[in-house]
């Protein structure tokens, strides 16, 4: 599956334990997203367009109205990256 560089960065942060927190309008549409890493940092690569593509491909999902997390398909699509720790 072809996944862009920004999508890879978001998926990698989610695979390490991050989450995507969303805000909804009064109609129920998602109007803003914040990708938080497991350390509590905000990832600037996660825009609404990137989030929409990830959700449409079913690489991220939400359970019970909670934050969006990576799915098994998302884990299979993410490429390994070096971690600078």
What would you note in describing this structure?
InterPro entries: YjhX_toxin (IPR018654). This is UPF0386 protein GGQ63_000322. Pfam families: YjhX_toxin. It comes from Prosthecomicrobium pneumaticum. Belongs to the UPF0386 family. The chain is α+β, with helices and mostly antiparallel strands. It has one domain (5-77). It has three helices and five strands; from the N terminus they run αβββαββα. It has helices at 5-15, 48-56, 72-77, and strands at 19-24, 30-36, 42-43, 60-62, 68-70. The strands form two sheets. It has a three-stranded antiparallel beta sheet with strand order 1-2-3. A two-stranded antiparallel ribbon has the order 4-5. Strand 4 and strand 5 form a beta hairpin. The protein is globular.
List keywords for this structure.
25% strand, 5 strands, 85 residues, three-stranded antiparallel sheet, two-stranded antiparallel sheet, YjhX_toxin
Short description:
31% of the residues lie in helices and 25% in strands. This is UPF0386 protein GGQ63_000322.
Question: How do the helices and strands line up, and which of them pair or pack?
Answer:
Blueprint: H1 5-15, E1 19-24, E2 30-36, E3 42-43, H2 48-56, E4 60-62, E5 68-70, H3 72-77
Antiparallel strand pairs: 1-2, 2-3, 4-5
């Amino acid at each position: 599956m072809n996944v862009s560089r920004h999508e890879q960065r978001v998926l990698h942060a989610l695979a390490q334990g991050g989450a995507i927190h969303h805000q909804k309008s009064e109609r129920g549409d998602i109007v803003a997203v914040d990708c938080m890493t497991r350390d509590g940092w905000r990832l600037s690569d996660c825009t609404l367009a990137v989030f929409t593509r990830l959700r449409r491909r079913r690489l991220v999902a939400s359970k019970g109205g909670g934050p969006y997390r990576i799915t098994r398909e998302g884990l299979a699509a993410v490429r390994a990256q070096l971690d600078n720790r």
